[in-house]
Design a protein that fits this description.
five-stranded parallel β-sheet, 15 helices, about 15% strand, alpha/beta, about 45% helix, binds iron/sulfur cluster, two-stranded antiparallel sheet, about 325 residues, Dimethylsulfoxide Reductase, domain 2
């Protein structure tokens, strides 16, 4: 359901769940759980759960229960037959970011090292490919340079392409709690829809669908025009800054505002908040990534962090939210 990765403590008695709580000192959830996590115990006891392996020799036959030993031997035997008959290219594995890192490591070892097959993929490619390529091409590594603890060090949070309040509810609760204690904190939400996340914003930016890159470039132009870029950071840690400035120069601010579908005065307000911020943290999700220009959207946002030197310290940086806890694992 979600990629927050909440940790839970489960107490059982006589094989029944008697108590389930969020782990208090877990950085992802600090003791909290959303309705889905809080009802995990009930799910474990639902009638109709499949508790043993089942097998059928033909698709039209009904499943028969079997033991784990039999099921594993059957899978191994069938894979062996296919490998012997058709070779390693005839087997493939499709997984997901719900597998933990250790599980994926073993799957890779089995398919690549043992079978000699390169055919492993997962739905994380659909979910996160744009984010990964954007991180690699802008920062040179594919992981977010941020963590949940950054929330409590930020003074401005920028959310784009994500309805966190519904899709990553516990992370959004962390933000809400922090903001309740820090009334000067600024929350900017970019979304064509007036979502539950947008309702909590100090600045809501109703971008046109597909207008994100124009919006991010407009913000960059204003920052540069106001001479508010972190030139020391840019000179020391970035490449090709002149190309970036030249690319932005090709577009008039009014044109970018129109493409973004946002009033120029509102974009200026966002740029001002960015310039004023000591620690700017951005959260973004598939609203940016799942697009034919998803990588460019992610890159344009990360570029804003580089332009302002808002990265590589507590409370600042780009933070891509995932749909699955181990999507980047
Ligand atoms: S926020 Fe996500 S990870 Fe946490 S309990 Fe809810 S569904 Fe589970």
């Amino acid at each position: 359901y979600c990629g927050v990765g909440c940790l839970v403590d489960v107490k059982t008695r006589n094989n029944k769940v008697i108590e389930l709580r969020g782990v208090k000192d877990a950085s992802a959830n600090k003791g909290m759980l959303c309705a889905k996590g809080a009802t995990l115990g009930e799910i474990l006891e639902l009638d109709g759960r499949i508790l043993t392996p089942r097998i059928r020799n033909k698709r039209e036959l009904a499943f028969q229960e079997t033991t784990w030993e039999n099921a594993i031997a059957e899978v191994a035997g069938r894979l062996r037959d296919i490998l012997d008959k058709y070779g390693a290219d005839a087997v493939a594995m499709y997984g997901s970011g719900q597998l933990d890192t250790e599980g994926w490591y073993l799957a890779n070892k089995l398919f690549k090292a043992h079978f000699g097959s390169n055919h492993l993929d997962s739905n994380s490619r659909l979910c996160m490919a744009s984010a990964v390529v954007a991180y690699n091409t802008t920062l040179g590594g594919d992981g977010p340079p941020t963590c949940y603890d950054d929330i409590s060090h930020s003074d401005c949070i920028f959310i784009a392409g994500s309805n966190m309040a519904d899709a990553h509810p516990v992370t959004f609760q962390l933000i809400r709690k922090f903001r309740a204690k820090n009334p000067d904190h600024t929350l900017i939400v970019v979304d064509p829809r007036y979502t539950n996340t947008a309702k909590s914003a100090d600045i809501y930016v109703p971008v046109k669908p597909g207008g994100d890159i124009a919006l991010f470039h407009a913000i960059a132009k204003i920052i540069i025009a106001r001479e508010a870029a972190d030139t020391e950071f840019v000179e020391r840690y970035t490449n090709n800054f002149d190309d970036y400035v030249a690319m932005l120069a090709d577009y008039r601010l009014e044109y970018l505002a129109e493409e973004a579908g946002v009033e120029l005065a509102l974009i200026e307000q966002v740029a001002d908040a960015f310039i004023k911020s000591e620690n700017l943290l951005s959260f973004y999700c598939v609203g940016l990534g799942q697009s034919s220009v998803g990588t460019a959207k992610n890159q344009a946002l990360i570029d804003l962090h580089l332009l302002l030197g808002q990265i590589c310290r507590e409370g600042a940086g780009p933070f891509s939210l995932t749909g699955q806890p181990n999507a980047m694992g």
